[in-house]
Amino acid sequence: MAVSVSRKRSKPSKKVEAARQCCLWYSILINFLYRIPAAILLLVLIFLWSSSTTIISGNIVHVCVSSRKLNNLYCLSAGTQANVNIPIPVFNSTDVSSINFGVKEIVNDVRDNPNPITDQNRVDKDGKKKATDAVKVVDITHQGDRNPVIRKEVDQAEDEGTAYARKVVEEQLQLHRSWRSVKNQPVCDGRGIYVYDLPSKFNKDLVGQCHDMVPWVDFCKYFDNEALGQPIPKLGGGWYQTHQYSLEPIFHSRVLKHPCRVYSENEAKLFYVPFYGGLDILRWHFKNVSNDVKDTLSSELIEWLETQPPWARNSGKDHVFVLGKISWDFRRNDGSPWGTRFLELDQMQNPIKLLIERQPWHVNDIGIPHPTFFHPHSDDDIISWQLKIINSNRQNLVSFAGAPRPDQPDNMRSILIDQCNSANNGVCHFLNCSSGGCDQPESVIELFMESDFCFQPPGDSPTRKSVFDSLVSGCIPVVFCPFTAYYQYPWHLSADHGKYSVFINQEEVRQRKVNAVERLMKISPREREDMRSFIVYELLPGLLYGDSNSQLEKFQDAFSIAMNSLLERVSRME
Predict the structure, then answer these.
(1) Which tens digit of pLDDT belongs to each residue from 118-158?
(2) Element housing 39 (H / E)
């Protein structure tokens, strides 16, 4: 008898079904990735790489990835030795992350800087490295719980690094101030200035590229009137729309007419190299070119200088460069596409570099004022302006001209804007630069002339041209980081910072411990007048760059102070 046997399929186990599902999703994923162009994958990888930070803390390595779209910092930690115990900190906010390099005031500005500079080039090669080696961890906590192990290490390292760093910087500034000449007029006494006649590609040809130097503006208008720019009739004679990066051609035109200029190398003690390195950098900032291309012109300049007998005679120690951008723009690290490596070249360690912002650890970097909009021709021009601003009706206690950071509520600027807008009417005035409010120089100058104090928080770097615009307008700058002014300009600003500015610790503002507007309200009218008088009568003339044909007799302008101090320094080398 035939027996019919029916086979019933056995139900697969849960493990087998899970494996099938896993394989199915894996297959779909592979198929999807296969269809994505390789270029997109490459972009994703580049983004992840560029947004990561590697921190070494003792024998622990943290690799962290952050994004402005994300609320948290994500880190992968690993020990450099077997069985190491890795403490797990709490990460609550990425906008307060900053690598501490010994001076807390400067690294705090990394949070406000979209292109922070956090490399070992902050420290020179002569032993200042200790200031950064003392600090190896990242302050990555904010408001929430803090890991006590990392917090203790951070606090200890900050104290040690900050103390050493301040000592180094203050010693350098004392040396710089010792070179400052007290002579009102240049005394040549055989100390001639030789101006190299460089091939035009190093200066004039760069000016000739003004039409496409920056994508959104024709820079050529800023090079009118020997780089002073176009006149501003509303503000009177001597006022021009000068760009903040025009220092190189302005300085060059003045050196060519200096009374100590000589035309023989053998008669010179000081050698001026008119290389427009800032314009060289500026033309590449917004173009997709390789680092080799960015470094080409500066490398060619060094090759040219090495063929000149005066350069070889003293290894460049008696040479001076004037550079119209901040020092960091010339100190590109290996992992960054920003700027050149001009000032990192071995050949550039001996010469003096005058810059609108110095690198704190290099003794041969010296800060000189940003060019303002006022370029007097005579002593009378200065005296007339002094009388005007000392008697100006200052209807605002404080003002701030700047662009807000709406996506960064804990940014210094955002906090100051909130405090300003919350003040009573007539106390604080905010001029929004992001909406074009600062495009016309007269708008900024008139605001500063109507204000007792001017907020000067760090911008994309510690210094601000606005500091000098406020001083020239008789507005007392309120400084939140000592590197904004105090550690920058030893020849042009007084060592007694309280005579011309108010300092408010930026950390106290960030942590909402201090309302800056309320702090300023406590300063008496008499104190304000004393500070303003010092600014107007003692500082102001030395912060201006006269026009190329200026005839100043009673006053030294910023150019004269710099040149007389350079001649004083070179005389001590003999």
Answers:
(1) 333 333 444 344 444 433 333 333 333 446 666 566 566 66
(2) helix 38-50
**Residues with Cβ < 8 Å from 529, sequence gap 6 or more?**
none
Provide CB contacts within 8 A for 410, sequence distance 6+.
93, 95, 96, 111, 510
> What gap in Å lies between CA 527 and CA 15, rounded to an integer?
80
N-to-C CA span, the chain: 125
3-class DSSP string for 392-455 = CCCCEEEEEEECCCCCCCCCHHHHHHHHHHHCCCCCEEEEEHHHCCCCCHHHHHHHHHCEEEEE
- Contact, 503 vs 444, CB < 8 A? no
- Separation between Cα atoms, residue 164 and residue 339, nearest integer Å: 29
pTM for the model stands at 0.75
Strand 60-65, strand 52-57: pairing: antiparallel
CA atoms within 13 A on the CB side of 383: 7
Residues 6+ apart with CB under 8 A from 476: 452, 453, 454, 470, 500, 501, 502, 528, 531, 532, 535
Radius of gyration of the chain (CA): 28
Q: In what order do the strands lie in the sheet with 74-79?
A: 52-57, 60-65, 74-79
Q: Is 82 exposed, middle or buried (0-12, 13-18, 19+ CB in 10 A)?
A: exposed
Q: Are 552 and 398 in contact (CB under 8 A)?
A: no
Looking up tokens 């190491």, which residue turns up?
Answer: 84
Q: What is the distance between the alpha carbons of residues 158 and 162, in angstroms, rounded to a whole number?
A: 6
Give the integer Cα–Cα distance in Å for 133 and 143.
27
Token pair of 140 as six digits = 């990555």
Collapsing DSSP to helix, strand or coil, 74 comes out as strand
Bridge partners of 319? 271
The DSSP code sequence of 165-218 is HHHHHHHHHHHHHHT----SS---TT-EEEE----GGGTHHHHTTGGGSBTTB-
Q: Which uninterrupted H or E stretch holds 15?
A: helix 14-35
Higher pLDDT: 101 or 294? It is 294
Model pLDDT for residues 172-196, shown as the tens digit of each residue: 999 999 999 877 777 788 889 999 9
**pLDDT value of residue 152:** 61
3-state helix, strand, coil in the chain (%, to 5): 45, 15, 45
Please give the average per-residue pLDDT across 88-115, as a whole number. Answer: 34
Give 496-536 pLDDT, tens digit per residue. 999 999 999 999 999 999 999 999 999 999 999 999 999 99
Distance, in Å, from the CA atom of 119 to the CA atom of 124, rounded to the nearest integer, reads 11
**CA–CA dist 563, 560 (Å, integer):** 5
Contacts of 332 (CB under 8 A, 6+ apart): 291, 294, 338, 339, 340, 341, 344
